[in-house]
Amino acid sequence: MSVVTISVDVGTSVVKAVGYDADGQETGVARRASQVDRPGPGRAEQDVEAVRRRVLDVVEEVARSGGGSEEVDLVSVTAQGDGCWLVDADGAPTGTGLLWNDGRAGAQVRTWQADGVLADGFARTGSMTFSGLANALLAWCAEHEPARLDNAAAALSCGGVVHAALTGRTAIETTDASAPFLPAGETAWAEDLFALYGLDWARDLFPDPLAEDDRSRPLVDGLAAELGLADDAVAVMAPYDVPSTVLGSGAVRVGEACAILGTTLCTATVIGADEPVRGPEAGLRLRSGVPGQDLRVMPTAAGTDVLDWACGLVGVDAPVDLVALASQSPAGARGLVFLPYLSPAGERAPFLDPGARGSLHGLSLEHGREDLARAVLEGLTHAVRDCVAMAGPIPTVLRLAGGGSHNDTWAQLVADVVGCPVTRCQDAEVGARGAYLAGLVARRDVSAGRITAADVAEVADHHVAAVGRLEPDPAVTARYDDLHARFLELREAVAPTWATAPGAGPA
């Protein structure tokens, strides 16, 4: 099958490119592992040029291996969101890219929280600042590493630096623009929000957010030939990875929801663009990439990396082995409760605490490896339920995406703990599927005028297939209702100790 479209998903740990034929069927996948550098406490960085090089490598691999690659005229890119990737006037990085899970600005976030700054920002945007957002990272850089800012001409997202490498355009996509300087329902930066965080000086670093119908640009001269693409190939700046994954899951109508079981556990519920944010001051409100719709997003700071950590703890090789081991322990892990807040950056959703730390409760000599594995898996799943509940009413069906969704045992556990049916996506790379759909929509924008939510739903319904519906067991769900209450009680009891924990709150 000939490749006609390539979608790229620039994740934190892996860069992937997926080829699609004229009917939207996957034809092949190329992957390159990415390295996260941690040069100091709480820090998480990536080499910008290395990320760009990996993107070009996977695009070329898919294009040249697909047969008839000269037909590839569309490359649609989604990428990790948040963070701060500073570049100079020529698009060259002024330093490493600072990632969404970077915790160096924890002290600044706590100060803003105590002073009411975060609450004021949330009231305007529906998004709660955390240490990995651009405002916190820029404030930290200004105080601790001002040299990063000396030659900076733009503060971009990961997707922005990739789009610039492909097209030469310096831009910020609307979902990336959603937090922290873009008020809910508006399309232009708010000067007073820059002032709120003491960042008036940073306003000129941010290009105006893209219009929804301005996502595509031709590739820079000579790049199409270098990569084996059609001479007239264009690159589309798709929504960043969370909204793209929601789109790729088929959640494109108000009230629908998706849970991503990936490097971050992230839930997203579709809301109307004019709907006020209800509930606690937590999480993010993002543009969805669908006209008239936003997303109420609860992205945790840790996810499947907790499973990787636990593998070493219990002596198994991979998360799939950990889940299998967990299956040997009953629901409730014989009284063990695990709080999964292991990120050095603390937690950002469904509550904000840069000092949050994980812990294991109820341990005795009677517990075995299988109980530890079960407690870890259940702790992560309780976090999913917590996030779903914070974002709005429990959906009638929860769509699952991310690497963890492919494990039948964990998917069933999500259904039982959350208490609603779950479905999974036929695509292995759901974020790339979402970027593909965004590319189709962008092409329709150009040819047929303004796109509507109904148009996006039509495209998604045609190209997204849900498989493997799993129903919750009412008796098991009732058991987990009690266990979830215990999980929340323990977290509330332990939270006051986080401020004094060694290593909490990096400077």
Automatic annotation (TrEMBL):
Residues 259-442 form the Carbohydrate kinase FGGY C-terminal domain. The keyword Isomerase does not apply. SUPFAM superfamilies: Actin-like ATPase domain. Transmembrane segments: none annotated. Keywords: Kinase, Transferase. Its EC number is 2.7.1.215. The gene is eryA. Residues 27-46 are annotated as: Disordered. This is Erythritol kinase. The keyword Magnesium does not apply. Belongs to the FGGY kinase family. GO terms for molecular function: kinase activity. Residues 5-248 form the Carbohydrate kinase FGGY N-terminal domain. PANTHER family: L-XYLULOSE_3-KETO-L-GULONATE KINASE, SUGAR KINASE.
